[in-house]
Amino acid sequence: MDLFVAIFTGTVIAATPLIFAALGELVVEKSGVLNLGIEGMMLVGAAFAFWAVVAGLPMPLAILAGALAGAAASLLFGVLALTFLTNQYAAGLALAIFGSGVSAFLGRNFGSEPIDGLKPLAIPLLSDIPVLGPLLFRYDPLVYLAILSFVAIAWFLSRTKGGLILRTIGESPEIAHAIGYPVVKIRYWAVLFGGLMAGLGGAYLSVAYTPLWVENMTAGKGWIALALVVFATWRAYRVLLGAWLFGGMTILQLQGQALGLAVPSELLSALPYLATIVVLVIISQNRQMLAEHFPASLAKPFRPTV
């Protein structure tokens, strides 16, 4: 039972940065924009959040700093892709490289000392319930925020007028523009939100998941978040399930190494990435499912006409 609790709670915690980043990218792609720079935005968010804690700011402000840094990085992408209509693939890759460089520059003086990271909540009575207590009520606030973000985004995309407008722009920006919606402005807001969520995911890595600065600490999680959106076929609930799946693979490889399984550690470390490849191959075989939910204008530039 102790092993089960450890795997379950570890899975939820490991999935949290993926949930933030993938939900943000889901909103971006629903608007018809493809931002490949999630890795860079997460690294910028992680670096600024860690810097804020080292500078003595309260933890909530440090997390906010990381989120805003991710949004600021996404604004750079927005200017390139939405205003100057550069290739979205190239702009996103440039942002990923830029974010890696900025985070390395900021982190050069952080040292290797751990910080006093974000603490789990101690919910009276509930956290003391046998089994259910540690399974459900002993996480830090950002874990619960990730779940609330999923509920809010799923509701927004499927149940609100704003979500309908966003999806319409992702399907046909020309029609949305013709009936009076400011396509570029709405896409900018979507891109900023995606950056905010990616920065939040990065901040979680540096101040909660691993309260210690390590260069390139995202270790490909931004790319996994991108793959999650495709795995989810652009549906919010599948993003959540996919994040838990890949979080579980991460924890299983750690548990496997801890138990001393007779499997090369390199292979165990590659499990989350191998799972990403396998899932994407399986999903790509069902072209009808992809076509039903794929935003028709994804990555296509749009220039409004008068």
UniProtKB/TrEMBL annotation:
**What is the recorded membrane topology of this protein?**
Multi-pass membrane protein
User: What is the superkingdom listed in this entry's lineage?
Assistant: Bacteria
**Transmembrane segment boundaries:** 31-54, 61-82, 88-106, 142-158, 188-210, 222-246, 258-283
Q: Does the keyword Cell membrane apply?
A: yes
Molecular function via GO: transmembrane transporter activity
Q: What is its main location?
A: membrane
Q: What is this protein called?
A: ABC transporter permease
> Which species does this protein come from?
Pseudaminobacter soli
